[in-house]
Amino acid sequence: MDTDKAKLVESPTDAFLAHWISYIDDSELLDWAESYARQNSDIDPESKLFQLLWLNRNTVSENAQLGQLIESYALEFDPTFDVKSPSAESVARRFFESRLREYVSERCRPWDVCRMISPIEQLFDFPDWLGDMFNLCDWIEPGTMPVDCRHLEHGIREHLDQASE
Hints:
- The protein is mainly α.
- Helices cover 59% and strands 0% of the residues.
- Helix 2 (12-20) runs antiparallel to helix 5.
- The longest helix is centred in the middle third of the chain and has 19 residues, at 86-104.
- It is globular.
């Protein structure tokens, strides 16, 4: 996981939410778990975090346990955590706007932005802060190149300008 993401994804609840909305992928979640375990040596060996750490990176995409384990660990860390709460929505918005800035600075692909839209819409019931991103991402596929979707960069710049007002 790159340094900027690591600064944003600090806690187990952040990691769970970031993974849920596709801000981080499976591999980055495992990177986060390793880093978190190194920084917090007092973690209970019976914790779900250790089960995460034991997952085989080569088969993690085939392992449906990953999402369940980070969710369980997030709830071990903070039993009051509610993924649909206003505070979780605020964190999700921060992750999304970070991803938009990554795109403008050419550090991610169109799909990295667009794959976040649906999980955010479903989780937070079509929040206003997504603006027109659903339409901007229409027809964008995993292999779409930035040159093929200049409208996305323009829309993202407008979105970020409005968000900073």
